[in-house]
Write a structure and sequence with these properties.
The structure holds two protein chains of two kinds. By secondary structure, chain A is mainly alpha-helical. Chain A is about 75% helix and about 0% strand. Chain A has six helices and no strands. The termini of chain A are far apart. Chain B is mainly α. Helix content of chain B is about 75%, strand content about 0%. In chain B, helix 1 packs antiparallel against helix 2 and helix 2 packs antiparallel against helix 3. The chains are: A mainly alpha, B mainly alpha.
Chain lengths: ~170, ~100
């Protein structure tokens, strides 16, 4: 009961702020709504027993990526609103229709799961209370190579971002 | 109130993903478009965590960590490209980014 209440509250906030992110006029407001959205998603992770991910979400998304967005908005000093120029060939209404078709498709997939019973559920092996130790153990044993590749990717992205942001490019 | 099943999380993540798609399709500010992509990545993460909780297997959470890592790299490089483009063309409107349009 309490879990259901928490889920519905969080879901309402996540979707509401998601809509605000894409409808807000000012880009800075959009970013602020994005931060709140990320924080509610972190709360959703806690609800599902993924505490480590919740912390990562807050630190990396709400703390790092969003600050990057804010810096770019600050550096991109717009003299006129970016939405003012309108391409006559652009069909925004069509994009909306395509998105709603996608929503119908995804809803059909979920509904299909309700109609035809899914495969037998796996035996409930408790994941254990120590979420951090479990994720860390997986990262450093089974997923060691992808882990190192991810660090290389971050290094390359850092170098790329610095080169792209240089003044003489 | 019915108990929360993974289907609830699937519906939530589908809705959030579609919100991101609508943002990409309808907005013209490229910074907002990048933010919509972040929303879509988060929808996928919600899905992965829900299934990780269902199968009681932490591999899904490891995948979420990799997705967050790739999202950080994407944001850094994408915003760098936006900065470089703005310095040359003075715009962040995707309708005016027609340098390579055929």
């Amino acid at each position: 009961m309490g879990q259901a209440l928490a889920f519905y509250t969080l879901a309402a906030f996540i979707l509401g702020f998601g809509v605000l992110v894409i409808t807000a006029r000012s880009t800075v407001h959009s970013i602020m709504f994005l931060v709140v959205d990320f924080l509610f998603i972190a709360a959703l992770y806690v609800l599902q027993g993924a505490q480590f991910l919740a912390v990562i979400q807050v630190v990396v998304y709400a703390g790092g990526i969003v600050v990057l967005y804010l810096f770019v908005v600050m550096l991109v000093n717009l003299k006129r609103p970016p939405e003012i120029h309108k391409d006559r060939r652009r069909r925004g209404r069509l994009g909306m229709v395509v998105s709603l078709v996608l929503l119908a498709e995804l809803g059909a997939i979920v509904a299909y799961k309700y109609v035809s019973p899914a495969a037998a559920l796996p035996p409930a092996r408790p994941m254990g209370p120590d979420n951090v130790a479990q994720v860390g153990m997986l990262l450093y044993t089974d997923f060691l190579v992808p882990f190192e590749l991810a660090s290389m990717l971050l290094l390359v992205a850092m170098v790329g971002a610095i080169v792209l942001a240089r003044r003489d490019l | 109130m019915t108990p929360i099943t993974p289907a609830h999380f699937l519906v939530l993540s589908a809705a959030l993903f579609v919100i991101g798609v609508i943002g990409v399709m309808t907005r013209r500010n490229i910074i907002v478009i990048l933010m919509s992509i972040e929303l879509m990545l988060n929808a996928v993460n919600i899905n992965l965590v829900a299934f990780s909780n269902l199968w009681q297997n932490a591999v899904g959470q490891v995948f979420v960590i990799f997705i967050i890592c790739v999202a950080a790299a994407e944001a850094a490089v994408g915003l760098g490209i936006i900065l470089a483009f703005y310095r040359n063309k003075e715009t962040v409107n995707v309708d005016e980014m027609t340098l390579m349009r055929w």
